[in-house]
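Input chain follows. Return structure tokens only.
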Amino acid sequence: MEFSSILYSAFLLSLLSLMVKYVVLMVMSLFAHSINPLKLNNYKDDIILLPLILLGYSVLLLVIELANPAEGGIYSFLLILFGASIVPIVRFTGEPIITLFRSRINKNHQNEIVKKKIQERFQENYHIYVIDKKIMNAYATGILPFTKIILIGEYFLENLKPEIIDAILTHEIAHLKYNHLLKLMLTNILWISITIFSFSIIRNLVDSSNLFAVFLMGYFGLVGGGGLLFVNGLVQKRLEKQADLFAVKKNGKAAVKEMLLKLNELSNDQMTKWSFNYPTLNERLENISRADSH
């Protein structure tokens, strides 16, 4: 494949990855009977990351062109592993850095108060930022030590009970403490490696250059994108439950259950609906009920 063809195919795959993401958000909105999944997505970050994703797919396709797993050998294995690592590394390290940069620009006076509270209680030194906007959400992100951050909506600090805020922060701390983002990245790398390996073997079946781009898009869309969505969902649901159990150990079952019920109320019962990557409210409550909080 010529270099121009690699760039063209990488561009198509980059657009396809965005299309798959937006289709997933639309499906989630459909199941939740709400436009919030689409509304809360950060489209500016999607545009900022697009050139990096394009670079990642270019390297990945170059690896496919060079690797020949049918012949075996450590060279092909390492080449595939390297290619499979590019896109996940860009995604899981690039997004937190962008978020961290933006959070520092939008610092809130409550950041240091929340950070000090976590340091005193958990002996953990994470970057804590209060989101300036009235967003009813909190999440942890980052793999590298200097990119590990926790973002919490200002609405939570102003309107929720201290016990619920503690449970929310403890849940997010668990994601960082147990390196959940790293585990998701490794899951991505493993699945993409499988996709590249299988694609490299069966690509010879497509002997027409006119069909190659169509086959590439279809294969990576169905096997790469669809398969990764399914596998990621299974892994992430287990990690969410593990974070809930960590919060139970630190705060008790009652506080964590109250937190989940309150978040469900604020989301207009969206947590009761099925999701690709989150357990339902009932699944999480049952998981907590079976836990040993001591």
